[in-house]
Specification:
The chain is α/β, with parallel strands linked by helices. The chain has 18 helices and 20 strands.
Length: 499
C-alpha cells in the first residue's frame, strides 16, 4: 500500500466521524442552516425586500419568500452580474457558474466564498466515505480522470465565469494534482470529440484507477479507448481501474453497456452535484440511496410533485417529508439562491438517515392526456424488460404523438438507440407498454379506455443521439438528453435518424 493510500484511511475515518455528527441530527442541522442563512443575508437587497429581519422560523420564511425558478430571481441576478454587491448574498460572488437555460438563454449561477468549499468538501467526502466503508484505498495511488468542461474562465465585471466542472478543476487539492488527468492543455480543448481523442491519447498507457464523469460521455471515452486498443476491454487496458464516480443522469440505462465495456464489475459512487450546490452522494455500497447533505450551506424545501403547478403548493421542510413521495426540490443557499426551484424531483428512500433518489425533472414529463408519466417510470419500464431479455440500450427519449392521422389513436412514441436490437420489436414494445401501465395507473386507464393506443418504439441509427447533440452544439460536458418531452421538438429532430 502506498503512502497516500495509507494516509487516506485515518483521514477517511475522521471525515466520517464529522459527517455522523450531523447525519444523526439532520433536522436540527437544517434549522441551524436556515437561521444562519437569514442572519447573513438580512442586509442584502433581497433580504430587505423580503423582510428577513422579521423572520423567526420556517413558517415566517415561507410567508416572506416565494418559490421561484431562475426567471423569478433573474432581476436580482442581473444586478449581481452587473457588478453590484450585497444583492442576493453579502458581497460579490467568487464565480458565476454558466449554464444553459431553456427560456433564459445563458444562466449565471452565483458561487460564493461560503458555497464553493462545500462543493469541494462534498466531492472529497464521497470518496472518503467509500474508503472508510470498504477499506479500499489503493486507487488513490493510481491515475484519476475527471471528464469535465474546460477550466478556462472568462471575466464579467470582475467575476470569473465558467462551467461548474471547469471551476472545480481550479480547486483540486494539491495532493491529487500529480495523479490527475487529463493535462491542462487537453482539458481546455472546446470541441468534445477532439478533446476525447486527446484524452484517449494521454491515458491509454497510464495506470488509470478512478474514472469520473457523466455516463454517456464516459461511454464515448470507453468506446474510443477500445477502438484504439484493437477491441480490448477497459478492464484489460486499465488493470487497476476499480472505482467509477458518476452523476448528472440515472446510471441504470447505461449500466449494462458500460459494465460490458469494462469487462468486469467495479465499485461505483453516485453523486448529485449541481451548479446551485452539491446536494447528495452515495455514502454506502450497500444501498443506492444518496445521503442528503443537511449541513452543507443549503436549506432544502420539498413540494409534492403533483402540487407543483398549483397556485399555492404545499412547502415542506426536511422534518415533514414522507418516504416514497415524489417531491420537487427547492433550494435556499449560502450563495444567495432563495426559494429556488432547481427543476429536479426526488424521492426519500430513508429518513434515518435522510437518503434520496433522483426521479427526474419537474419539466420532463408527458401529460398530453392527463397521464403525467415521469422519467423514473419510463426508465424502469424499459430497463425491466431490456434486462429480462438481455437487450442493451444506448440511449432513448419519449414524446407524445397527439395527431397520428389516418384515424389512429394517439400514442407515446419512444426513440431508442439499441446496442442490441430485439429480435421481435413488436413483442418487446408490448412488454414495455405493459410494464409502464403497471407503473402509472393513469396511463393504464388511458390504454384500457381506448384513449391511447400502446406505445410505439422507433429504432434509431447507431450514434443517433451523439449526432443529434453535436448538431445542437451540446456534445459532451454537462449536457444531457431529456428522457421525456411534453412536446414534439426533440422527437421531430430525431425523425431523420429512424431506421
Amino acid at each position: 500500500m502506498g503512502v497516500k493510500a495509507a494516509l487516506s484511511k485515518p483521514f477517511a475515518a475522521f471525515a466520517v466521524w464529522q459527517i455522523n455528527k450531523w447525519k444523526k441530527n439532520a433536522v436540527a442541522a437544517q434549522d441551524k442552516i436556515l437561521q444562519n442563512l437569514i442572519a447573513q443575508a438580512k442586509d442584502t437587497a433581497f433580504g430587505k425586500d423580503h423582510q428577513f429581519s422579521s423572520i423567526k422560523n420556517y413558517h415566517d420564511f415561507k410567508k416572506n419568500v416565494p418559490v421561484q425558478d431562475y426567471e423569478g430571481l433573474k432581476p436580482y441576478v442581473d444586478r449581481v452580474v452587473a457588478g453590484e454587491a450585497d444583492v442576493l448574498w453579502k458581497g460579490k460572488p467568487l464565480y458565476f457558474a454558466k449554464t444553459s437555460g431553456t427560456t433564459s438563454g445563458v444562466k449565471y449561477i452565483p458561487l460564493s466564498k461560503e458555497s464553493m468549499p462545500e462543493h469541494i468538501k462534498a466531492a472529497r467526502n464521497a470518496i472518503l466515505t467509500y474508503i472508510n466503508e470498504t477499506g479500499k484505498a489503493d486507487f488513490v495511488n493510481g491515475k484519476m480522470i475527471f471528464l469535465q468542461g474546460s477550466p478556462v474562465l472568462s471575466v464579467k465585471n470582475g467575476i470569473n465565469v465558467g462551467r461548474l466542472s471547469g471551476i472545480v478543476a481550479h480547486h483540486v487539492p494539491a495532493y491529487l494534482q500529480k495523479n490527475r488527468l487529463p493535462s491542462y492543455e487537453t482539458n481546455i480543448i472546446e470541441d468534445w470529440e477532439e478533446k476525447v481523442d486527446a484524452i484517449v491519447g494521454e491515458t491509454l498507457h497510464e495506470d488509470m484507477s478512478l474514472i469520473s464523469g457523466i455516463p454517456p460521455w464516459v461511454q464515448m471515452y470507453f468506446d474510443k479507448l477500445s477502438e484504439k486498443s484493437n477491441g480490448k476491454k477497459i478492464g484489460e487496458i486499465f488493470k487497476n481501474f476499480s472505482l467509477f464516480i458518476y452523476g448528472g443522469v440515472n446510471f441504470e440505462p447505461y449500466r449494462a453497456k458500460i459494465e460490458q465495456c469494462i469487462g468486469r464489475k467495479i465499485d461505483s459512487i453516485e453523486t448529485y452535484p449541481a451548479s446551485e450546490g452539491f446536494i447528495a452522494y452515495q455514502d454506502s455500497q450497500l444501498d443506492k440511496g444518496l445521503l442528503l447533505l443537511a449541513d452543507a450551506g443549503i436549506f432544502y424545501e420539498f413540494i409534492p410533485a403533483d402540487e407543483y403547478h398549483n397556485e399555492n403548493p404545499t412547502r415542506l421542510s426536511l422534518a415533514e417529508v414522507e418516504l416514497d413521495t415524489n417531491y420537487a426540490l427547492v433550494l435556499n443557499t449560502n450563495a444567495g439562491l432563495w426559494g429556488y426551484s432547481i427543476g429536479d424531483t426526488v424521492k426519500f428512500v430513508s429518513k434515518d438517515p435522510y437518503k434520496i433518489v433522483v426521479t427526474g425533472r419537474i419539466k420532463h414529463f408527458i401529460s398530453a392526456f392527463g397521464e403525467h408519466v415521469i422519467g423514473e417510470e419510463v426508465e424502469q419500464a424499459l430497463l425491466s424488460v431490456a434486462n429480462e431479455e438481455s437487450i442493451e440500450i444506448t440511449e432513448f427519449t419519449v414524446a407524445p404523438q397527439v395527431n397520428p392521422g389516418d384515424g389512429l389513436l394517439p400514442y407515446h412514441e419512444w426513440f431508442v438507440e439499441f446496442s442490441t436490437v430485439p429480435q421481435d420489436l413488436a413483442a418487446f414494445s408490448k412488454k414495455v407498454d405493459a410494464a409502464l401501465q403497471k407503473k402509472n395507473i393513469y396511463y393504464f386507464d388511458l390504454i384500457a379506455g381506448n384513449i391511447l393506443q400502446p406505445l410505439i418504439i422507433r429504432t434509431l441509427q447507431k450514434d443517433a443521439f451523439v449526432n443529434y447533440m453535436k448538431s445542437e452544439g451540446k456534445l459532451g460536458g454537462q449536457n444531457k438528453v431529456p428522457r421525456l418531452s411534453n412536446d414534439r421538438k426533440l422527437a421531430d429532430r430525431l425523425g431523420k435518424y429512424i431506421i
